[in-house]
Amino acid sequence: MDKEIEELLTRGVEKVIPRDLAEKKLLSGDKLRIYFGVDPTGAKLHLGHSVPLRKLNAFADAGHGIIFLVGSFTAMIGDPSGRDVMRIPLSRQEVENNFRTYKEQAGKILDLSKIEVRYNHEWLDSLQFTKVVELASNFTVQQMLQRDMFDKRMKEGNPISLHEFLYPLMVGYDSVVLDVDCELGGSDQEFNMLAGRTLQSVYKKREKFVLTTRLIEGADGRKMSKTYDNCIYLEDLPSDMYGKLMSVNDSLVKSYFECLTDVSMGEVESILSGHPKEAKMRLAFEITKIYHGEAEAKDAQKNFEQTFSKGGVPKDIPLAKVKADTPLVETFLAHGIVSSKSEFSRLEKAGAIEKMENGVYRIGKHRFLRIEFL
Fold it and tell me: What pLDDT does 350 receive?
């Protein structure tokens, strides 16, 4: 098989369903319609989000037609995938605000000027109830209850809302409207994407294959998620991004190289055969370079060596000028040092907030803030 096609179907990929259909379509030489949908439920993208975006970009580079679908309707409902509790629905305004920042961050990976952007409220807002019933007739309650998170909630006595059963129908209907050859997304979206494959068949559209990308673990070994405070964000400062990457477990380095960089897998094997610290430094450099450029990545590397190898302080510490009576937690929140008051409290209790000289605070291993009082 063509090496480019093989890499499209394997690098950073969890599953291709069905594989033979994917190979047939890609080997045909036809320009395929590939789509990726995202519900803008938050304002910040992390490296976990970048995996399907990078795969989408790889298909674009291969000459295929790409659709970036904004869940402008479904984000207001809430995707139950991977959730132990119900997701809080958002307003249309919150979705629009979130997507504005999504576009800026996704633009670090995708050339959005060459990609078709669609919004699913265009067809879901006007979907009549008779159509919803028709869509629902293609699935059973047993199918829904087989999903891991629903089974877990039932065992723990947590509620399952009826609208959560409707979510796969809505995103499945997206596939019908868009009439695509392939849908890609994280492996936690497999059920939803297969619902779309089912509905495309029911409504006699193209036969779609599903490609799921791997979920990236954070430094603590759990799925990278804001919930676990283990994220490396695309908008992190170069020194923060580099430092966080240096703190990931050695066992994750290979998968990070595969899913998050453009380094060939042959070269990755060579890198991994050397010293683990040098391999991790190369990884941190490559990822920081993608989002901040080579010069910033080199500075971040020098900064890291100065700070952590020689016990120094980074050069590019963000500066906060605040009134003397401003609570420390408010200053940290305003400058993105912590994501919530609960995170601040947890760090404080763990003794992870250290006041250093010249108004510098060190938070954990790799976060710094200099405070000047007005």
Answer: 85
72-81, 289-298, 313-322, 353-362, range with the lowest pLDDT: 72-81
Q: What is the mean pLDDT of the chain?
A: 88
Half-sphere CA count of 54, side-chain side, radius 13 A: 25
Euclidean distance between CA atoms 201 and 207, whole angstroms: 6
| Domains in the chain: boundaries | 3-213, 236-313, 317-374
**CATH for 236-313, options being 2.60.40.10, 1.10.40.60, 1.10.240.10, 3.40.630.10:** 1.10.240.10
Edge-to-edge strands of the sheet including 13-17?
A: 13-17, 209-213, 182-186, 33-38, 65-70, 116-119
**Axis crossing angle, helix 129-136 with helix 162-178, rounded to the nearest 10:** 90
Average of pLDDT values for 348-354? 87
Phi, psi of 254 (to 5 degrees): -65, -45
Judged against a pLDDT cut of 60, whether residue 86 lies above it is answered with: no
The residues pairing with 119 across neighbouring beta strands, listed in sequence order, are 70
Over residues 183-228, the pLDDT tens digits come to: 999 998 999 999 999 999 999 999 999 999 999 998 778 888 877 7
Pick the CATH number of 3-213 from 3.40.50.620, 3.30.360.10, 1.10.760.10, 3.90.1200.10: 3.40.50.620
Extract the tokens encoding 137: 């007739």
